[in-house]
Amino acid sequence: MFDQLRSFFKFEMKVQPKTGFLIASGSDPIDPTFPDISFVRTPYFGMDSPVPFIPGSSFKGVVRATSESMLLGLGKYVCDLSDRKKTCSYQSKMSTRDPKEKIYSGSCFACRLFGSNVVGSVIRYEDFFPFQKPEDWESIDLSAHTVVRNGIQIQRSTGSVASKALFNFESIDLPFYGGITMKNPELWQIGLFLNAIRLFNSGLQRLGHSKSRGMGKVQIEFEKLTIISVKPSTISLTDYNGSFRTKDLPLPSEIVEMGEVQDQLLWEITWEGDTVEQVLGYLLDQANPALREVR
Fold it and tell me: Residues 114-132: pLDDT tens digits?
């Protein structure tokens, strides 16, 4: 179940801001011309200056928090990562030396998907950048997509503006592109992830800085889905007990024979355009009952 590759999902996505949008750098800007709170940036190969981006850790954190809320709403057990003594590994007295099956079955539902200090994550996040290809960045005028907004601090006792409380922050309206992968997922895990994304698209969950101030509403679009599977036109999904089962899929855009890996013939199945929404709808229909019933 854990060592053998049976299915591999890659979701290629676009995050389109619908309101002001900021992933804060978390430190004072080095450049004095930058706002007090600036968008996080990172050096990128071949670029003259750092590029704004959404760190994979930022995306994973808010998706995990959203998923944990949904699991608790469904009456599923979720451990408390803020208290070491309330984590799965501490309560179950697990360690990395235990068999992988024991660690997995002893973990809460959130840790089974997102990982913990004793079990690896099924789902993995890339950084999201404001371009699909690095060469596209040369044609983008960042200043035309950047707004510096002012913020103030309100005294809760009086409802008036606090003295010297004015600050400014950066907002960028460019779309960001990146991917999320899942290795040997269970059907309910796919459903949990897709339902979390639906909450972002409905506006019930937001991403980034100043979410309570009207910022952070985004539209997340799936542009491409690639599944690597041991069988063409089907996916091999992991069951809770460690076995595998297959699901037939809607007609893909492309099927390519990849060759043998771990003595198994693998196939790359791809959906693009309208067929992506078709297969995601199919997966949700299959996954939602599994999400409610998993124990």
Answer: 998 888 899 999 999 999 9
Spell 72-104 as b/e; 16+ CB within 10 A means b: eeeebebbebeeeeebbbeebebeeebeeeebb
What Å distances lie between residue 189 and 6, 114, 176, CA to CA? 15, 10, 24
Assess contact for 180 and 13: CB atoms under 8 A.
yes
| Total-model pTM | 0.85
Quick check: is 25 in a domain?
no
Asked if residue 119 is part of any domain, the answer here is yes
Residue with tokens 């041991």: 230
Counting every residue written for the chain, the total comes to 295
Domain limits for position 123: 7-18+52-136+173-293
Per-residue pLDDT reduced to its tens digit, 189-239:
999 999 999 999 999 999 998 888 889 999 999 999 998 877 666 666 655
Residue 125 inside a domain? The answer is yes
Between CA 229 and CA 188 the distance in angstroms is 18
Query: How many separate domains does the chain show?
Result: 1
In a domain, 39, yes or no: no
Instruction: Please state, in angstroms and as integers, the Cα–Cα distance from residue 293 to each residue in 110, 146, 148, following that order.
Output: 15, 46, 47
